[in-house]
Design brief:
808 residues, alpha+beta, 12-stranded mixed sheet, 16% strand, elongated
Length: 808
């Protein structure tokens, strides 16, 4: 123990004696260890902790699959939910669905909220207990039962100030009174549905009787001793029975069970693993850099080590001393890395848009707990051993005769130089992999954002508008409000046009199945399935969607005339082929509803994500399908955000209780979309890691070349004395450095070709072998390494031959 204390004291003195070396090494290690700790914190929160429910590994999400590739995973109908409750493999099957609107009560201003609905057993299936009051009881999810809600912890604190007397009080949601029965714990986060409060799921008469009304999500908990395979097999039997009894709405359907953890984080899992590998590369580069620094320093300490060896110190004693120094260095770097990790995690969360934070709620609970601290400490120890062992072994066996001579300062430089050269090649190879990965993802993101979305997003303002349902129960009042609103908004300076749509592009929605009247009735399950949109007569013109055939909607398309529809070009091509669709009538298979007449065909618009194929879509006129909630789109002549306040004022001038939210420029809607986020987020982080890797690699090659120049001062002086020109010396030094760089680039190309294939699922219309990306990366890296070599090479040309010849 005494000797260990001696080693530590001596290590501290050596660090203090060389502050420049210590600061550079600590800074380098802090970047590597801090970045690794930050990403591990995110990985731990998303993949390792598990969901905050009882035995989360036994929870599964149920899906219905269909033969249509565009809709191969969807929700169930409410009668399906009732059928799945009768099984022998699940403790319980719970249902939930989306919902929202306006909440009022307690004297506060009306507020737009997320208010999903859940079956009575929802929280018991998850294994969640309230912190106040109770959750739903059996029977409260039946039609006609008392309306009750459970508040989320965040809503309880924000809206009601954590009032412990909130249970039993009444509030109004969408004009209906609800009684608060409980408050959920702060740890409860249900990523699959945004929520401010949860309502009891009381199905409507249509939901109870119509199998084709999909929109009910199901989760289930496996019984003890039941395996996934057993559950899949028995539930599939129920699915088959439902299909046989309801061929018109369920033909070709099957059951899919997905672990709830995978459903929540499945999309981000490959991204996080790629980021963890990327930051691991940065850490390896940092270790190589510090090992190179230690090797350089060890040559200046060879005389010290030789004297200790001559006085009887064993090789193990010397190695232990040097390893103690490297471990102390890594621990200090690790402590600094914790600050980097803390800032990195909080900066990451702060930089994300709100819709992604709500979709990935584990980001809200990230913190550096004991597990993270243990990881950082262990990583620091491992790092200290990794970068310290080779220099310690190299330094612990000096040639005493050579070192103790007056001119023995260069002894052992050959082996050390070769090791430093190998480390630099490794740094450059790792930097190539990171730079290529970052380049591929950046190019993929650009391709995604440049994809043809079917409309003009420039100077387009969007917002969701919700009228108080209690005041606007009649459709004619709803239509009148939006007519007046559009007139007032279009009178504002800078407004070029307005329109309404129930669901904006790039967002999924309800679907329907149909066939063409007069064509053979398709077999159940073979109908065309299409997304549904409700738009007003000026929507397409405002959005810049071209009319290809027929006419647009107009004021003639009212509720008291025959229903009409406009279809997208892809729908027309898929359904009608070369036939003219205008004037044809569409029918809904298995549904007792009058046919609708196709009056027009418009250009294709991206209905799903940016990276989705064009989906079939049917557009219905707003005047025949009016609602209290829709999206207003406003075409402006300048910055759309500058008009947001004026548009709000016009709305509140018409109706003081109107709720307005999601006020965004369409360009921001596109940028914040799920597909863009899933590529921008990793591209940004890998780009940062690649920049750090490039910086460290350039510093590494600069250090090697600079040290080589200092070791060759005498040789350079001799060559210059014999007539070597400045160009000769530059060429000699640059050749030495560029040989290392080119060798590292060659290794990096091979590694990148092998490793970037793991990025394939994250790329959009970009191959992992993209020649342009490789060329740009290698060209940029060559320029940076050339600059890193040129600086010490230029210094070498200024050597005074007379001084150099006296150097040794």
């Amino acid at each position: 123990m005494f000797r260990l204390w001696q080693d530590l004291r001596y290590a501290v003195r050596t660090m203090v004696a060389r502050p420049g070396f210590t600061l550079i090494a600590v800074f380098t290690l802090a970047l590597g260890i801090g970045g690794s700790t930050a990403i591990f914190t995110v990985v731990d929160g998303a993949l390792l902790r598990g969901l905050p429910y009882r035995q989360p590994d036994r929870l599964y999400h149920l899906f219905e699959t269909t033969p249509q590739k565009e809709f191969n995973q969807r929700e169930f109908s409410y009668p399906d939910y009732q059928d799945y409750q009768n099984n022998q493999v699940l403790e319980g099957v719970a249902a939930y669905t989306g919902g929202g609107g306006i909440m009022s009560g307690r004297g506060s201003e009306p507020e737009r909220i997320f208010a999903p609905a859940a079956s009575a057993n929802f929280f018991s299936v998850l294994g969640v207990e309230p912190v106040l009051g109770r959750t739903f009881q059996p029977g409260e999810d039946k039609p006609g039962a008392q309306r009750v809600v459970v508040l989320t912890y965040g809503m309880w604190q924000r809206r009601f100030g954590g009032d412990p007397g909130i249970v039993g009080q009444s509030l109004t949601v969408n004009g209906d009174p609800y009684t608060v029965i409980g408050v959920l714990p702060s740890s409860f986060q249900f990523a699959l549905r945004n929520a401010d409060l949860w309502r009891a799921y009381q199905p409507t008469p249509n939901q109870l009787t119509r199998r084709f009304l999909h929109g009910t999500n199901l989760i289930g908990r496996l019984k003890p001793g039941v395996t996934f395979a057993q559950a899949q097999a028995e539930l599939s039997v129920i699915t088959k029975r439902i299909e046989q009894e309801n061929m018109s709405s369920h033909a070709g359907t099957a059951l899919k069970l997905v672990p709830l953890q995978e459903q929540v984080v499945g999309q981000v899992k490959p991204i996080l693993l790629v980021l963890l590998a990327a930051v691991g590369f940065v850490l390896l580069i940092a270790c190589a850099n510090v090992a190179s620094l230690l090797l350089t320093r060890s040559l200046s300490r060879q005389r010290e080590v030789a004297i200790r060896a001559a006085l009887g110190a064993s090789r193990w004693r010397v190695v232990r001393q040097l390893l103690t120094e490297s471990l102390l260095l890594s621990i200090v770097g690790g402590l600094a890395g914790l600050l980097v990790a803390y800032w990195g995690v909080h900066g990451l969360v702060a930089a994300l848009p709100d819709n992604q934070i709500s979709a990935l709620p584990f980001l809200q609970t990230l913190h550096l707990d004991a597990k993270i601290l243990a990881f950082s400490f262990g990583l620091s120890l491992l790092t200290g051993i990794v970068f310290g062992l080779a220099p310690a072994l190299q330094s612990s066996r000096p040639d005493l005769n050579e070192v103790l001579k007056e001119g023995g300062r260069s002894s052992g430089a050959g082996a050390g130089h070769r090791l430093r050269g190998f480390l630099v090649m490794s740094e450059i190879a790792l930097a190539v992999v990171l730079l290529v990965g970052a380049g591929l993802m950046m190019k993929s993101l650009l391709r995604l954002l440049q994809t043809n979305i079917g409309f003009n997003p420039d100077n387009l303002l969007t917002m969701t508008v919700v009228l108080p349902p209690a005041k606007y129960t009649e459709e004619n009042k709803q239509i009148e409000f939006f007519d007046q609103l559009k007139t007032r908004v279009e009178s504002l300076p800078g407004v070029k046009g307005t329109g309404t749509v129930n669901i904006l592009p790039l967002q999924a929605g309800n679907t329907t199945r149909f066939y063409v009247e007069g064509d053979p009735v398709p077999a159940p399950g073979q109908e065309i399935e299409a997304n549904i949109r409700t738009v007003d007569e000026s929507y397409f013109q405002t959005m810049g969607v071209p009319l290809l055939a027929g006419r647009m909607f107009d004021t003639r398309d009212k509720a008291d005339v025959a229903e009409v529809v406009i279809i997208g070009k892809s729908t027309a091509d898929k359904v009608f082929g070369t036939r003219d669709p205008v004037g044809k009538r569409l029918r809904y298979n298995g549904v007792q509803a009058p046919p609708v007449t196709v009056v027009g065909v418009v250009g294709n618009v991206k209905i799903g994500g940016l990276d989705d194929d064009i989906r079939p879509v049917l557009y219905y006129p707003f005047r025949q399908n009016a609602t209290t909630a829709t999206n207003l789109v406003v075409r402006t002549s300048g910055d759309p955000n500058a008009l947001a306040a004026a548009v709000r004022n016009e709305m509140h001038g018409l109706e003081s209780d109107v709720a307005v939210f999601n006020v965004k420029a369409m360009e921001d809607v596109i940028s914040d979309s799920q597909a863009a986020f899933m590529r921008r987020f990793p591209a940004l982080l890998i780009g940062i890691f690649a920049a750090v890797a490039l910086l460290l690699a350039s510093i590494g090659i600069y250090g090697v070349v600079s040290y080589s120049v200092s070791q060759q001062t005498h040789y350079i002086g001799v060559r210059m004395a014999l007539g070597a020109t400045t160009a000769d010396i530059l060429k000699m030094i640059l050749t030495q450095g560029l040989k290392l760089a080119l060798a590292g680039m060659g290794l990096g190309i091979v590694a990148a070709l092998g490793l970037t294939r793991w990025l394939r699922t994250l790329l959009f219309e970009v191959q992992t072998t993209d020649v342009t990306t490789f060329a740009v990366v290698l060209g940029s890296l060559f320029f940076v390494t050339l600059l890193a070599c040129y600086i010490p090479a230029r210094r070498a040309t200024r050597v005074d031959p007379l001084t150099a010849l006296r150097y040794e």
